[in-house]
Design brief:
- The structure is a single chain.
- This protein is of the alpha/beta class.
- 15% of the residues lie in helices and 32% in strands.
- Strands 1, 2, 4, 6, 8, 9, 11, 12, 14, 15, 17 and 18 form a twelve-stranded parallel sheet that branches. An eight-stranded mixed sheet has the order 3-5-7-10-13-16-19-20.
- It has two helices and 20 strands.
- InterPro entries: Hexapep, Transf_Hexapept/Carb_Anhydrase, Trimer_LpxA-like_sf.
Length: 198
């Protein structure tokens, strides 16, 4: 659902995919190969939201701000399921974990990884390539080259997803029985823990 508000219409690149159950309102700019999942609320009603090329905002995320503020997700930012971004700036190629909360005036540097359920309080400045966890958030270590490679590979899956959704996704009636020839999807990507064990 795409909504004009107070004279501002969202600007969305044609290669982006916005799920019809997401809501994008007002002064929002969405770049190339961006994926916005169902239930996401991207509210540019009081301020501006810029989502640069290659970002993803997954299911049930909220992006909002106080009046007159611009929220920026820089290129290839990866916002996990249920996260809340309120008046923050997210650096290039960052991962914000599931159900994390980033409060106003947070500046998350490039190539950071924020753990699931992390609460980052108002005004926290986080340098580039840091791992951030906890409530309240603490910087616990640097992002290694191996961690960054793993994160980047995961985001690349989401950067392919808009095209896949446009070509392979359609409303349908459900089957009533499992077909005998139905295959499982292949396992082509590992969680961080699985990768460490391997």
């Amino acid at each position: 659902m795409i909504y004009e508000f107070n004279g501002y219409k969202p600007v969305i690149h044609e290669s982006a995919f916005i799920h019809p159950q997401a809501a994008v309102t007002g002064n929002v700019i969405i770049g190339k190969r961006v994926y916005i999942g169902p239930g996401a609320a991207i509210r540019g009603d009081w301020g501006k939201i810029v989502i640069e090329d290659g970002c993803n905002v997954q299911e049930n995320c909220t992006i909002h701000m106080f009046p007159g503020v611009t929220v920026t997700l820089k290129e290839s930012a990866h916002i996990g399921h249920g996260a809340i971004i309120h008046g923050s700036s997210i650096g290039k190629n960052c991962l914000v974990g599931m159900n994390s909360v980033m409060m106003d005036n947070v500046n998350l540097g490039d190539e950071c990884i924020v753990g699931a359920l992390t609460f980052i309080p108002e005004g926290m400045e986080i340098p580039n390539r840091k791992v951030v966890v906890g409530n309240p958030a603490k910087i616990i270590k640097d992002v290694s080259d191996e961690m960054l490679k793993w994160k980047t590979e995961g985001t690349e899956w989401y950067q392919k997803l808009p095209s896949d959704m446009k070509n392979k996704w359609q409303e349908c009636e459900p089957l009533r029985e499992i077909p005998e020839d139905r295959d499982d999807q292949s396992r082509e990507y590992e969680t961080w823990r699985e990768k460490q064990k391997g």
